[in-house]
């Protein structure tokens, strides 16, 4: 019997552990206690949150060194260079948050109806030819976009000159 148990365990994996209901209750009460008592803020989060007030203090004539000393006086371990870096990061994040939202590739824009005709002006007849736009000759864009070749013959074929490299 033990062989079958090992074989089925090897094939199917270990059976899931079962925990008593009391374990769920204990974890639930501990998680509630954690939710009621926040862990606190990291130095970076403090600087990000207080950036408007830091900038207001700077506008009032205080230097970043004065502000870093104020943090140290409150028991926050913060150097002047770290304060500068966190302020730059905070400004960069706010700048990016103010940018307009660009649709992602996942979002599907409304598809435009494809037609073979040019847009219709205010009148359905052209001012120059008098023909409806659908009947007007359309320019050949492909031919216009081709680069002009210097060594072509009168039939439009490119010819090789003696000084061309192979």
Q: Describe the global form.
A: flat
- Over the alpha carbons, how many angstroms does the gyration radius reach? 37 Å
Count of alpha and pi helical runs: 6
Instruction: Give the end-to-end Cα distance, rounded to a whole number of Å.
Output: 80 Å
The helical percent reads 40-55%
Number of strands: 0
SSE series: HHHHHH
Percentage beta strand: under 5%
Oligomeric state of shown chains: single chain
Mean pLDDT: 75
- Major sheet details: none
Structural class call reads mainly alpha
Uncertain residue segments: none
Task: Characterise the protein shown here.
The chain has 166 residues and is mainly α. 47% of the residues lie in helices and 0% in strands. Helix 3 packs across helix 5 (80-98). It is flat. The protein starts with a helix and ends in a 21-residue tail after the last helix. The mean pLDDT is 75.
Helix-strand layout with pairing:
Layout: H1 2-12, H2 21-36, H3 43-59, H4 64-73, H5 80-98, H6 141-145
Helix pairs in contact: 3-5
Primary descriptors:
166 residues
Nutshell version of this structure?
The protein is flat and about 95 Å long. It has helices at residues 2-12, 21-36, 43-59, 64-73, 80-98, 141-145.
């Amino acid at each position: 019997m033990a062989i079958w148990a090992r074989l089925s365990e090897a094939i199917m994996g270990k059976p899931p552990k079962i925990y008593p209901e009391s374990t769920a209750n204990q974890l639930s009460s501990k998680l509630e206690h954690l939710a009621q008592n926040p862990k606190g803020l990291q130095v970076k989060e403090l600087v990000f949150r207080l950036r408007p007030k830091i900038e207001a203090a700077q506008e009032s004539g205080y230097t970043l060194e004065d502000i870093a000393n104020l943090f140290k006086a409150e028991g926050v371990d913060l150097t002047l260079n770290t304060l500068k870096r966190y302020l730059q990061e905070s400004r960069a994040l706010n700048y990016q948050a103010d940018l307009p939202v660009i649709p992602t590739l996942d979002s599907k824009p409304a598809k435009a109806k494809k037609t073979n005709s040019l847009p219709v002006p205010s009148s359905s007849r052209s001012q120059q030819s008098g023909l409806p736009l659908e009947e007007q000759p359309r320019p050949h864009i492909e031919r216009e976009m081709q680069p002009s070749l210097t060594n072509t013959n009168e039939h439009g074929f490119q010819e090789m000159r003696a000084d061309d490299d192979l």
